[in-house]
Structures are given as structure tokens and as C-alpha cells.
Amino acid sequence: MASTTRRLRSRRATAAPPPGSVMAMLRFQAILRSDRRRRVYLPLPGKPEVRHLAGTVGGRRYRGAVESVEGSPALVLGPAWRRGCGLKAGDRVRVELEPEGPQRQGLAPDLAAALDASPAAAAFWAELAQFYRRAYLRWIDATKRNPALRAERIAAVVALLERGVKARP
Predict the structure, then answer these.
(1) For residues 24 and 123, what is the distance between their CA atoms, to the nearest angstrom?
(2) Which comes out higher in pLDDT, residue 138 or 52?
(3) Which of 107, 128, 19 has the alpha carbon at shortest distance from 65?
(4) What percent of the chain stands above pLDDT 90?
(5) 2-99 architecture in CATH?
(6) Region of residue 55 (left: phi > 0; alpha: psi -120 to 50; beta: else)
(7) Cα(166)–Cα(135) distance, rounded to whole angstroms?
(8) How many whole angstroms separate alpha carbon 51 and alpha carbon 166?
(9) What whole-number distance in Å separates Cα of residue 41 and Cα of residue 31?
(10) pLDDT reported for residue 5
(11) Which residue intervals of the chain bear CATH 2.40.30.100?
């Protein structure tokens, strides 16, 4: 176990961005591992600021959610995805990952301020998949000519996020 930990720590990765900044492209090399449930996973060099990542693993496009595997952050590589590329536990891969979908730092100032004012809504926003984030943003942005309606929709979105609702009814 100690040699595995040492090997994981020795991987080269780009430095983490300062808190509150947009996460930069994460580039590193890693050895794919297998857990007790025989899932193949990619151990990450640290806990990313975001949950959903996209990029390449071993030169193949990949998108997925960060999970905790054996107590550390990782991306589980499903059997169908691996079947298409031939990767297995023990293979060394080059990895390039970045946040997937709209991030808080890229939001309009009025929506960003509303999320800053509600930690519960902000935390739930951070966990949402890009599909749900984009649906909320489309609904808010559809009110460009009516600022009062835009403010109402932002308030409605924050209320839904506080309640843990992924998509508006």
C-alpha cells in the first residue's frame, strides 16, 4: 500500500488554481487501478474544485463525475467506455481534464450574486450536471428584454436550487 501511495503522489500534475478561480486544464499521467468491486478507475492527483470533468484519457474523449473510490477522488471508467478503447487496470495513461459545462465564474453578474447570497443554492449548483445548468441558464437568458422578469426568474431558480430541484417544473 505504501508503494502505491508513493506512486500516486509522484505523478506530475499542473498546480491547482487559487480558490474562486476557474479551474485550469489538469494534465497528468496515471496508472489505472481496480477497486474491490472490480471497477477500473482513474485516481486523481487531488480533489478538483468541480464535480463534472471532461477531456481525454489515454487519447480518448471522456466525461464523468468525480467519485470517492477507496477514500480518494477518482473517475470510474465504465466497461463500455473501456471496451471501445482497450484500456484496463495497470495501464499508464496521459490525462487532460477540465471542468465540464457552465461554471460559476462565467455566469452573468446578477445570477452569480444571487448564488453568492445563497450558499445552499450555490452548493447544489456546483453538483448539477451541465444539462441542468444550461436549462436554467436558457430559461433566465430568454428574458433579455425584460429585466424585471429576469430578476424574478433568477429568484425562482435560486429557490429551486435551495430545495434541491434539478430542473424547473
Answers:
(1) 20
(2) 138
(3) 128
(4) 48
(5) Beta Barrel (2.40)
(6) left
(7) 10
(8) 15
(9) 9
(10) 34
(11) 2-99
Is residue 78 a contact partner of residue 85, using CB atoms and an 8 Å limit? no
pLDDT for 16 equals 39
Q: Please give the sequence-ordered ranges of beta strands (E in DSSP) within the chain, or none if there are none.
A: 26-31, 33-34, 40-43, 52-57, 60-65, 67-69, 72-77, 92-99
Residue type, position 18, single letter: P
State the sign of the Cα–Cα–Cα–Cα dihedral 77, 81, 85, 89.
positive
Task: List pLDDT tens digits, range 95-136.
Answer: 999 887 777 777 889 999 999 999 999 989 988 888 898 899
**Three cell numbers, residue 164:** 434541491
Regarding pTM above 0.70, the answer is no
DSSP 100-168: -S--GGGS-HHHHHHHHH-HHHHHHHHHS-HHHHHHHHHHHHTTTT-HHHHHHHHHHHHHHHHTT-SS-
Residue type for position 88 = K
C-alpha cell at 61: 474523449
The residue to which cell 499521467 is assigned? 29
Q: DSSP secondary-structure letter at 13?
A: B
Contact 85, 32 (CB under 8 A): no
